[in-house]
Known about the structure:
InterPro entries: AB_hydrolase_fold, BD-FAE-like_dom, GDXG_lipolytic_enzyme
GO molecular function: hydrolase activity
Keywords: Hydrolase
Structural class: alpha/beta
Shape: globular
Helix content: 25-40%
CATH class: Alpha Beta
Organism: Actinomadura rugatobispora
Number of strands: 8
Order of helices and strands: HHHHEEEHEHEHEHHEHEH
Number of domains: 1
Distance between the termini: 30 Å
Radius of gyration: 18 Å
Domain BD-FAE-like: 70-176
Strand content: 15-25%
CATH architecture: 3-Layer(aba) Sandwich
CATH superfamily: Alpha/Beta hydrolase fold, catalytic domain
Strand order of the largest sheet: 1-2-4-3-5-6-7-8
Amino acid sequence: MDLNERDIDDWPGHGLTDAELDAAYNVRALAGEERFGHLMARYRAMSDAAVEGLPGHPGIVYDETGGERLDVWGPGRDGEARPVFVFLHGGYWRALSRADSAFMARTLHRNGVATVVPDYTLAPAATLEEIVRQVRAAVAWVHRHGRAHGLDPGRVVVGGSSAGGHLTAMTMLDGWQAEFGLPGDAVRAAMPFSGLFDLRPLTRVYVNEWLGLDVRRAAALSPELLPAGRSLPAVVAVAEHDGPGFLQQSRRFARHWGRAAELMVVPDRDHFDVVLDLADERSAVSRALLALVHSL
């Protein structure tokens, strides 16, 4: 990253007060505690229903260093290798799990696509740098071991919501693949939802209580500030009623990614329910994801 100190400190919204920044990024407060709790319960209930009776390989350790596990749902059988959607959960890097995050698995299975849902070590037990390493290791597992589990490592789409949108973008970048012995096109397409692509504002909001970032580290972990490189196809999705910070960041990241990116502002959805539309194959986001998969 070639940014001087002035560039690093001069981020969009740096002149806002802390209270204004909190309003832009505190989507839990925007939703309200009752609605937030209801939606978190829906994540788990919909995920449980989606995987009940579904063929799969749950609980596989994908990273010996971190000891974290992933679930494979709806893989191919009898030698079939299905395209893969790797979904990275949100929760501001400190909450949720793979058990809350498989709500799309049955819908994708019906459409010939497998779902891989990894856990990662939550902050503050892990630094954000380590969390990024772990999700990249999950992609590496698909490449090394996918065929033995009914997955096609040549057709991998990564997606995720909120913090998972940030982690998705960190797998879209060039340069990290060599460390894992992967080809440069290990990720063939991507679909971040309501992501965070410039982390510098978070150094001044409550999220930094568990991230512990300074502005320089935040900049180094910000996909919007890093070279787009190989422009793989991406749908950058965000909810119409999302937090202002998330809407602005999604628009900027789509511009940063260039012609390969499509910005999708999903009407009548908020930060937490937009990704649940992946469970409905008639929804715009499901159609967009399946179009990405079938274009590979």
